[in-house]
Amino acid sequence: MSHTIVCFRCGASLASLSLPLSRRDECPECSAHLHVCRMCRHFDRAAVRQCLEDDAEDVVDKERLNFCEWFVPSENAFDPAAKAEADKAKQSLGALFGDGDSPSEDADSSLSDAEKLFRS
Prior knowledge:
By secondary structure, this protein is an all-alpha fold. It is 25% helix and 0% strand. It folds into 2 domains: 1-78, no CATH class; 79-120, no CATH class. The N and C termini lie far apart (57 Å).
């Protein structure tokens, strides 16, 4: 059965998964759990508990796996503008703090010999 549902986090197609989504289903691209509030048709950031279903239990972490019986996957869960903004922020942080775990050679060249000894 074909559907147009995509992952709320990365936008990858979930057409290979059958509906209804299982509680344990994950995105094939980013491994995000899919039975989460952010992936649900009832999720609404503007609502009081961010849920339009009055009878649903309150879930604090909207991206955490849950047992909600009201869960219905939404075709509109992915927000490309929010993803682009998050990617830009990660890129800026990477540029500011460096992408690798070890200090760059440029940073080492500005250090004195004594500072280099303590960094090793």
